[in-house]
Amino acid sequence: MTRPIRVEIHPSALLHNYRRCKQLSRSNTALAVIKADAYGHGSLLTARALADEADGFALLNIEDAIRLRAAGIRQPITLLEGPFDRREVEAMAEYGIAGAIHSPHQMAWLAEGSLPRPVEVWLKVNSGMNRLGFTPKQAPSAIEQLRGLPHARLTTIMTHFATADDERGVEAQWQRFAPVAEASGLAVSAANSAAVFRHPQTHGQTSRPGITLYGCSPFDDATGQELGLLPAMTLSADIIATQELRPGDAVGYGLRFTAESPMRIGIVACGYADGYPRIAGNGTPVAVDGQLSGTVGRVSMDMMVVDLTHLPQAGVGSRVELWGQEIPIEKVAAASGTIGYELMCAVAPRVPRLAR
Ligand SMILES: *Cc1c(COP(=O)(O)O)cnc(C)c1O
User: Fold this and answer.
1) Contact (CB, 8 A) for 102 and 129
2) Which of 80, 125, 166, 330 best tests ligand 1's pocket when mutated (most atoms within 8 Å of CB)?
3) Which residue ranges form the domains of the chain, and what is each CATH number?
4) Is 141 exposed, middle or buried (0-12, 13-18, 19+ CB in 10 A)?
5) How many angstroms is it from 208 CA to the middle of ligand 1?
6) Could you report the per-residue pLDDT of 274-323, keeping only the tens digit for each?
7) Model pTM greater than 0.85?
């Protein structure tokens, strides 16, 4: 008997969501962003789900990119933060993997020695987020330098938005980036999920949707469903025990919940060590055998508690959906003061992952 918890990944939802992103930016190619093991969905599983339809993939680690190549993934792959050392430049050339160049030290690695073949590079421009990239002022000379390197093939100019998902939008950053991008004559890549859905002027040649591929909304004011997306991940676990509470009985660590009237509760085989947020408050929504209910008391390491008072049919073996089709991940995120991205990425390796 194995511990009854699993995270299901839905390949058909991944494909549906990718098509939805493509449909919104029809003239472009869309790189599926599969960093962080495809936001917890499994990068190979996700790449295979998108099969030949994906125009390409974007991620962070060369090791992950090489693994995709070894598994037969032939589409373009771009490293969003580029090489982390000179050896990675060689691996990029060997495996045909493109990468962003955001700093002079990376430029120096490209200029060092020779490579078996040229490596495709994208120039990253810092248009206001102030993480990675050359300033718009530095960009023209960086472009000139890259064009002068015999082993670099500069194809694309990129930037990344800090507020594409909120009411501030992209205009300030776009006004700094667009003139440099236009003057460069390079392919343009700027749009993350939020910009794919709400800022068409930024679509350029290559968009980079991430969160929406997984069915989650990047916006506070719209759910994934309202954006025409399907959840690609379902986290569920079963009830392994039940308890009857009398008025005054309390539950779990810190006895943070006290019953005011007679209650029946179910103990669920999922805790914060599985990736469910410990901070999720009392009453965070769950679905027990398809019926809406809520959490009770504190989430512990390996268990959590749900209210069964109004669900007399539910008991040991009942399936509790923690997020997925019935419980939007955005709701659990809101109840935990975080975003769907963090919850998806935090599902622990000990939770068996099934494709279905
Ligand atoms: C993560 C990331 C994306 C995707 O962002 P979403 O908000 O998940 O769509 C796109 N571009 C870069 C550079 C990123 O780091």
Assistant:
1) no
2) 80
3) 26-208 (3.20.20.10), 233-355 (2.40.37.10)
4) exposed
5) 6
6) 999 999 989 999 999 999 999 999 999 999 999 999 999 999 999 999 99
7) yes
